[in-house]
Amino acid sequence: MAAGRNEGLTKTFTAGGTINDARILKFGSADNLVVQATAATDALIGISKVPQGQQQRAIQTGPTPPTIPTVTIAANQRVDVVLEGIAEVLFGGNITRGALITSDANGKAVAAAPAVGVNNRVIGVAMCSGVDGDIGTVLISPGVMQG
Fold first, then answer.
1. Partner residues linked to 35 by β-bridges
2. CA angle 39, 28, 46 (to 5 degrees)
3. How far is CA 92 from CA 9, 82, 109, 110, 134, in A?
4. pTM of full prediction above 0.90
């Protein structure tokens, strides 16, 4: 896990389904709705961030990092989406800093690796290395990558 979160533009949307904290999002079925991304081909727009006051993190008191509580936003509730800057995201696999990041089936960050002739949408660039289950940082820069 790496420090260095520095969100720029954050916008509040309505959740089109259950959304977990620190997940990659895409637009939902209507204006102002977002849902968790489910594929590398989704039009990725940002990273979910639980609105202030809804998340309580454990305080570190020993040499072991604190457990980050699982926080979800229910359908039709408000959710903040980091659209620009450096955001925290949950890794869904091994990622090396500098890699282009896309979404797995659960909105977790994975390294983009499209097959030849296949397009992947990317949400940005990994700012740190990590493994499945780590909270890392990503410089948000949506785009398309072709294999």
1. 26
2. 65
3. 24, 19, 5, 6, 8
4. no
Scanning 3-116, the segments in alpha helix (DSSP H) are: none
Count other C-beta atoms under 10 Å from residue 44's C-beta.
Answer: 26
Dihedral (Cα; 90, 5, 35, 100), 10-degree rounding: -70
Name which residue leads in pLDDT, 65 or 131: 131
The CATH class of 6-146 is mainly beta
pLDDT greater than 80 at residue 65: no
AA identity, residue 10? T
Sequential DSSP letters for 95-117: B-TT-EEEE-TTS-EEE--PPTT
Q: Specify the length of the chain in residues.
A: 147
Contact criterion met (CB below 8 Å) for 27 and 45: yes
Please tell me the distance from the alpha carbon of residue 5 to that of residue 7, in angstroms, as a whole number.
6
CA nearest to 133, candidates 20, 6, 4, 5: 20
